[in-house]
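This part of the workshop introduces the protein records we will be handling. Each record describes a single protein and holds just a pair of labelled lines. Instead of coordinates, the fold is spelled out as a row of discrete tokens. To make this concrete, we reproduce a full record directly below:
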Amino acid sequence: MRRTLIIVAPLLTLAVAAHAQTPSADTPAAAAPPASEAPATSTPPASAAPAPSSGAAAGETPAEADSPASTADATAPVAPAAPEKTGVDVARSQPAVGADWPFYGGGSGATRYSPLDQITPQNVGGLERAFVYRTGDMPTGTAKGKYAAETTPLKVGDDLLMCSAKNVLISIDAADGTENWRYDPGVSNDAIPYSASCRGVATYTDPDKGADEACATRVIEGTIDARLIAVDIATGKPCEEFGENGAVDLWKDIGKRVPGWYAVTAPPVVVRGIIVTGAQVKDGQAEDAPSGVIRGFDAVTGAFVWAFDLGAPDQNIDGPPEGETYTRGTPNMWTAAVADEELGYVYLPLGNSSVDYYAGNRSEAENDYSTSLVALDVTTGRPVWTFQTVRRDVWDYDLGSQVSLVDFPAESGSVPALVLPSKQGDIYILNRKTGESLFGVEDFTVASRGDVEPDDLAQSQPTSAYHTLRGPDLTEADMWGFTPIDQLWCRIQFRLANYSGFFTPPSADRPYIQYPGYNGGSDWGSVAVDTEDGIIVANYNDIPNFNRLIPRAEADERGLKPINETPAGAKGGANAEGEGDPQTGSPYAIDVNAGWRSALTGMPCTRPPYGGIRAIDLKTGETLWDRPLGTARRNGPFGIPSYLPFNIGTPNNGGSVVTAGGLVFIGAATDDLFRAIDLKTGKTLWQDVLPAGGQANPITYEVNGEEYVLIAATGHHFMETPVGDYIIAYKLPKS
């Protein structure tokens, strides 16, 4: 139900021998001088010293659990419209991507495509650093080991706008990195859910204000302590008319405030003058978890407009009755939404219910909406259609990617569509007006529903007829090891585990193999789409999890407690997601070995590659090229870097940007390299060594006729890459 990753960094030294035939696509034609790899520090250089703070949808019902999949059962009927709310803007033109990067996903359609073409395959080898800015936000005290900023700045006018890991809002000059202002909302360490993350911000221009008025344009973020913050884009001062002194409390009507259980890590989306936001609910704690409600707020005043509470959509659209809360434990939206301003729809990628690995106690609404994309009418707060990608999800296959809006080149003409990636690897093309799949939905019959709850799991699952990033089912021959003993150990584990292929159900009698794992396919980095040439670029993970349900008696003996029963100040969140999660309220807790790592060396039990990047023809869904992404240079057994440059494919998180110059820019992999890849061939043409992990989405923009490319090198504790506070921009040298 929120961002789920896999443990990664100590990977593969001997992958060279296992994959000696891999082409050396990561050998750059011309490399920039490597950056220092000294550990990041919490003190920015004097030149960048921080300034003082300025102040019924579709899906299965129980009776339908064994029905065959079809396009019809994946889309919901149009819900009856509620009376339109007041204070809603009509559709208006959106800022264009190009010189600016005005939205988290680049343009308003989140394609991560830029029309800039100054940097090309012919000259990218000359790319050099334009500036390095340090945010100064580094983990201290109880925040150590819990930072994963994942930040993607916006570029608006002359400035870059961003949030740090703990929600410090910052504006810097886009040409040289000079700080303009910063606003620190004062988020405390105890608010960190699993990671301190802030993926991005949004902006909104008030059409009723003059350009020189305070907060005529404001920067808006959601915080990990569950607030909406709005500040003036020019000064960083809070917008006093927004909520209470520039802040709206998102804990209202959620229930008892438990720091770290309910948090916002994704940028909000603004459509027709309404801010739409969901929240991350910390996974695996209890069925009685905070609600996954989606809410709309007036972008000028911060006033509540509507709520989409999928457990009580009619009762709670205007908020729950006095003394009650939004429906608890429902699927949430921890990732980024995207909006169609013309239609007035916002597309919500929903996660799972509050207990990921047990379905027996879920309500009908949870079964209908979990792991689904919902199109919501922002003028009413009502769902228009729903498309479900997993029925009765007990695999934590949340929809983590932001969808991309495209005009699809169908035979009968252009169709307003969207690209929907998934963690299990399927990519769907949907009509964004109706939710219908343009390529149909195939029916996959699962081999087993297991012994734990066979009557509550689906007999079949939908898969995409368009494209999948998923590999074939695992075999014992896929087991791999740093040494023959390591490999033998992994093969023994394979034989001891339950495994019936794709959608193997959870089991308690012995471990079970989940492939893809919960960080398979596409996650929050999403995909990029070259809308001119019709090419999707998708980086992906290809690695299993090794799990076991823990009976309640055993969980109690181990002292597994949910976050709301953990004493204040106690250490929490240090384990991988799913590693000893209590799942209170269900008969089982859960143990997840994320990435299925060997107990002997810490290396994955399956052979590489563990991650890749692929170009796909948008019109046909055919693969144009596919290659591993990531070298072994920072990975090895026992967590010891091998420093080997061989391209073996590491797990990766964070997406790419595609330009009209014919390039793909991406960090993401655990080797701390930032790459430029030829869009036509998949070959790496340039790379730079980052001072910390590049688990963030890059951007590109223009200043004074010069094209810049930028990435946040802020690292990721769960990916085990070095944590830093670097914002690094590149451009070509002046001739």
Observations:
- Confidence is low (pLDDT under 50) at residues 1-87.
